[in-house]
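Renewal narrative, Specific Aim 1. Our central claim is that a sequence can be written position by position from structural information alone. The example that follows is taken directly from our test logs and has not been curated for this report. It begins with the structure tokens describing the chain, in the order in which they were read.
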């Protein structure tokens, strides 16, 4: 299986399966001399970790990360620093329940990658999906924590702005609320509604989709390159690589199709000797190059495909049948996608920072 590496100058290669002994990644291209300890990574992993509320899968994984290479104990600074060599990160799987999948080993789960993996490779790991499982995203979060250390002046924040058909009220937006509810929601009132709504979805044995929004503040103007190295192009590819993501928009995104030219244009004035944009429909990227405004990306995430209600499918032998997916699954996978989307934003920005420095000095 190829294509397990993401990035150019700052690269991440992931490995491992949902029900294997461990998952991990190798981060290559990280500059030397950056302070890095496991504790710098663990906090971000804890945000994504399963089993923290009734609204996520009850799989109990501590997701304790180990740094196996690429750091050195520097006596001068009194801590570990990166050496510029590949950084290997590993997370052990400790709570696999492969028997939950024994009844469906020969059935294709609708909405999953079972059918396409079988067609392409002639086999598939039916135990939670193997490489197609969202379990792999834990190491993206770990690698994203390293990426944040490369661009420490940039603030990356994600949140859930829609669950099912229910959007937040943007007039109630408060970043401080994101850590006060299990949904990473910036609207306290809507977060309270989501509890009741998702409880109903969960008890009905079903699932729902979501929209996640990620913002990067402090990105300087000039990152990205025209034509085939666009910043928004790489952001879209990064977000589309996340499990269950079916759509990505930058700035106003699809809403821009309904604007007039006057409405869409981000007008500019001079303020205190510097250019200032009066709006941000472009999402902080113009012509593939950052404008200095906040970079804003939204992700549309489909409902979790593993549900308790019967669905029609076929077996690997071509027999028509029904399927019920047991086991432990997120009723809304969009919740834990928030820290994953933040990580992918960090990976892209760290890569573009190094690419910009390499070209422009």
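The sequence written for that structure reads:
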């Amino acid at each position: 299986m190829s294509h397990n590496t993401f990035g150019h100058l700052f690269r991440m290669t992931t490995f491992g399966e949902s029900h294997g002994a461990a998952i991990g990644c190798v981060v290559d291209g990280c500059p030397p001399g950056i302070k890095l300890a496991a504790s710098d990574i663990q906090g971000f992993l804890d945000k994504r970790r399963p089993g923290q509320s009734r609204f996520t899968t009850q799989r109990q994984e501590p997701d304790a990360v180990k740094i196996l290479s690429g750091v050195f104990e520097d006596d001068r600074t009194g801590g570990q620093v990166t050496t510029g060599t590949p950084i290997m990160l590993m997370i052990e799987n400790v709570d696999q329940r492969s028997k939950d999948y024994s009844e469906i080993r020969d059935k294709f789960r609708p909405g999953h990658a079972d059918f396409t993996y079988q067609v392409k490779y002639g086999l598939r790991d039916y135990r939670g999906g193997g490489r197609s499982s969202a379990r792999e995203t834990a190491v993206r979060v770990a690698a994203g924590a390293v990426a944040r250390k490369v661009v420490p002046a940039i603030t990356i924040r994600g949140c859930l702005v829609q669950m099912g058909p229910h959007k937040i009220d943007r007039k109630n937006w408060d970043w401080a609320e994101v850590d006060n509810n299990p949904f990473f929601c910036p609207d306290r009132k809507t977060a309270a509604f989501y509890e009741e709504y998702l409880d109903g979805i969960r008890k009905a044995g079903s699932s729902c989709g979501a929209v996640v929004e990620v913002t990067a503040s402090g990105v300087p103007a000039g990152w990205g390159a025209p034509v085939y190295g666009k910043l928004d192009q790489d952001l879209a590819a990064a977000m589309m690589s996340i499990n269950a993501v079916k759509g990505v928009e930058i700035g106003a995104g699809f809403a821009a199709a309904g604007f007039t030219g006057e409405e869409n244009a981000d007008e500019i004035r001079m303020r205190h000797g510097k250019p200032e944009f009066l709006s941000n429909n472009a999402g902080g990227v113009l012509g593939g190059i950052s404008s200095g405004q906040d970079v804003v990306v939204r992700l549309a995430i489909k409902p979790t495909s593993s549900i308790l209600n019967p669905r029609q499918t076929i077996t690997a032998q071509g027999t028509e049948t029904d399927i019920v997916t047991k086991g432990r699954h997120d009723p809304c996978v969009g919740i834990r996608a928030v820290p994953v989307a933040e990580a992918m934003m960090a990976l892209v920005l760290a890569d573009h920072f190094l690419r910009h420095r390499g070209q422009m000095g």
